[in-house]
Amino acid sequence: MSAPIAELCAKLKEHVGRSERTDLGVIRKEQFQRFAIAADNLDPVFFDKDAATAAGYPDLIAPPLFLSAVRNWQVGPPQDSLRTDGTTSHEFAFLPLEGFRMMGGGQELELHAPVTDATRVSMELRLDDVELKQGRSGPLLLIRITQTYRDDAGRPLVTCRETFVAR
Amino acid sequence: MSRSQRFFEDVSVGTRLTPLVKRPSTAQLFRFSAATWNAHRIHYDKPYALSEGYPDVLVQAHLHGCFLLQAVMEWAGPRARVTGFGWQNRAIAVPEDVLTCTGTVTSVGSGIVECQLEERNQRDEVCATGRARIQLPCRG
Question: Whole-prediction pTM value?
Fold first, then answer.
């Protein structure tokens, strides 16, 4: 397995510093309210416009983790394109990760501005770094990615830094 | 649900956040996967999770993050602003685990409070750690 991991490392290194922006579309309150309910968080600033404005927001806001928790903003691949474990390799834009398992396990977020209902959002994904390491069960890659979410005026909403382990 | 407001003047290093207790169900994990368009079987397909060596389906990494962040926002109050947040998963959690999120203020200055966060299960094992930076309103 070390050869494919080393090859992936070499391929990814060619993409370090590269970024790509994707339009995520208009964020609707029903999307982030569904997320809030699934997270068992009924904070009124997500559901009640009066509560949101009383808290100083211009409109209903999305839970702060909403944008960076959604793994796939596109329609997703058809069933027969899913891997055995149900995941898809289409989640990381231009990165050539086909055939590898990516595991996250936490994020570092800068929350610049709240995401309000009906905001059009884009996401820029940048590959920051790739590091080949020897884990307890064999070689692995640490892939550091920054995702910057902006509104349609280009104002940053959320910056998310995340390190994935690829095996 | 209404949240009382925390003010900067009321907080000092060592102040403890109000604990938040969560007990995620299998249905909750399914709905969280659906809301995030996450088809990873490990969160809804128990036979698959067992085949990977886990005791049950697993609580999503981001759901741990949501629990920690909810603890912060409920403690801080509606006019507070969380400007930075991060978490790391340390151990798995499964449905019906009782997950308690706690936090302690580690620094205060210029209206900004920083705190360390922790989520533990019913066996007192740490499932996730985190930190948050919060802007709190001042009295008057």
Answer: 0.94
- In a mutational test of the B interface, the residue from A46, A47, A71 whose CB has the highest number of chain B CBs within 10 Å is A71
Beta strands in A11-119 (DSSP E): 19-26, 102-103, 106-111
Q: How far is A128 from chain B (nearest CA, A)?
A: 18
Buried b (16+ CB within 10 A) or exposed e, A33-67: bbbbbbbbbebbbbbeeebbeebebeebbbbbbbb
Q: Does A58 touch chain B (CB under 8 A)?
A: no
Residue ranges and CATH numbers for the domains of chain A are 2-166 (3.10.129.10)
Q: What is the interface pTM, i.e. ipTM, of the complex? A: 0.96
Query: How would residue A136 be classed by pLDDT, with cut points 50, 70 and 90?
Result: confident
Is A40 in contact with B28 (Cβ distance < 8 A)? yes
